[in-house]
Structure formats: C-alpha cells, structure tokens
Amino acid sequence: MLPPSAILGAVTTGQPTRHRPRSRATRILLILAAVVSAVAVLAVAVVAVLLLRPPGPRPIFQMPVACGETWQLGTYPGHDDFDVDLFPTEGESWGRPVLASYAGRVTVAGINGSLGGRTPEDPDGPRGRGGGYWVKIDHGGKWETQYLHLLEPPLVRVGQRVEQGEQIGRVGSTGNSGAPHLHYEQRQGWQKVEAYFDGEPSGITHDDTEYTVNRTSNNCGTETSR
User: Fold this and answer.
1) Which stretches are tagged as biased composition: Polar residues (predicted)?
2) Are 107 and 101 in contact (CB under 8 A)?
3) Which spans in the chain are helix H?
4) Three-state DSSP class for 110?
5) Would you give the end-to-end CA distance of the chain in angstroms?
6) I want to staple 143 with a disulfide (CB 3.0 to 4.6 A). Which of 17, 19, 139, 174 is the partner?
7) Phi, psi (rounded to 5 degrees) for 110
8) Which stretch of 30-44, 138-152, 185-199 has the lowest confidence by average pLDDT?
9) Residue range 204-214, pLDDT digits in tens
C-alpha cells in the first residue's frame, strides 16, 4: 500500500489552470504587429513583381542637346561600358543647355559625390568626385537616362514631370571631370545599355579603346515611341 503522502501527491484538484487575460494594449500591439507583417509581405511581393516584369519598348530617345547642333560622342579606356561623353563640335561647352532625351519624371536632381572647383572662371580648378551636379529621369517601362557634370544645381526637382526637349541643366565640369562636357547614360531595367538616338545606335558599347563619332541632334520637341 502507498503511503498517504504519495496518494495525496497524485491527486489533482480538478480545477482548470487560470491564465491572466491579456491587456487591451497587448492585444492592440499584437494586431498592429500582424498588420505590419502583412504589409511588409505585400510590399516585398510588389517589388518582386516589378523587378521580374520585362522592360517596355525602347523610347525614341533624342540627343540631350539642342535641335540641329552637332556634337561629338565619345568614350575612352577606363570610362566604363556604354558611358557617353558629349562635346560640341562648335562653340563653347560651358553653359550649353542640357535637354531631356525623352519625357518622364525626375527621380534624382542633386549632387553625386563632390563638386570640386572647376568653373568657367577657373577651368583648371580642383576636381571633385563622382558626377557632380546630376539628374536622373524615369521614362517608364524600366527605362532611365542620367545626365552628369552639370554646371550648377539642376533646373528641375525630384518628382517633376519633364517633356522631351525640356531644359534640365547646363553643361559644366563638376565632379570628377577634366573638362566641360556632358556625361550621359541610358539604362534598361536599371542596367546600362548602348545609347540610341533618334532610333539609331551610338556605337559606344565598351571602353576598350578610344572612340568618337559626330551626331546631329534631332531633339526638336516632337516626341515619338516605338
């Protein structure tokens, strides 16, 4: 026979365990946490869909300079693939208008790196870093253009809608620039690609050797797309 102490130890009272009810604040916090988690999952799903979506058709980009002007497009070893430098074949480079290649919305308008001290009054001043004053435009369909080394703060602001041929800045030599010129890029799906102007390839695809070609701008205010 078991001793009384053992029998008593095996007997339960039959009463359910009582838990302290959660406070209202705790319940609200749990609900908020669930909502935040759901929103985060939805945001990730939306971003994934946008990244996986193929780019739209290539817009008919125009040269980012005034209609009828002839400019030299070039690259050089170490410049990076697909990057285009533009210099006018006639007249002064400083202060020339920089135009939007195609309609879109400004996503960046500010300073890339540091400005340095090269100006029309002191063209041999100290170089800066990066692109200096610059602008980036989203044209939709995962197409972007970038405009670097502008003379002064851009003439547009982030979020602004611009039309093809609208002036967004002036040619300068801010950032890591040896002389006044416009550094220009076209991007598809956020990756640099060969720049096309008026539907024709620029021929600048790599920076293995120095390469230049003269092209005349047809950025005359008439916008088309493929």
Assistant:
1) 211-226
2) no
3) 4-10, 24-52
4) strand
5) 97
6) 139
7) -175, -140
8) 30-44
9) 999 999 999 99
Distance CA 154, CA 218 (A): 23
Best CA proximity match to 159, nearest among 214, 105, 213: 105
User: How does DSSP classify residue 32?
Assistant: H
- For residues 88 and 94, give the distance between their C-alpha atoms in angstroms, rounded to a whole number: 10
Residue-wise pLDDT for 58-98, tens only, equals: 999 999 999 999 999 999 999 999 999 999 999 999 999 99
- Exposure of 205 in the CB half-sphere (CA atoms within 13 A): 2
Q: Give the predicted TM-score (pTM) of the model.
A: 0.77
Token reading at 5:
């102490």
* Residues composing the chain: 226
Q: Which two tokens stand for residue 112?
A: 């890339």
27 phi and psi angles, rounded to 5 deg: -65, -40
Q: Count how many Cα atoms sit within 13 Å of the Cα of residue 26 in the half-sphere of its side chain.
A: 4
CB 150 within 8 A of CB 172: yes
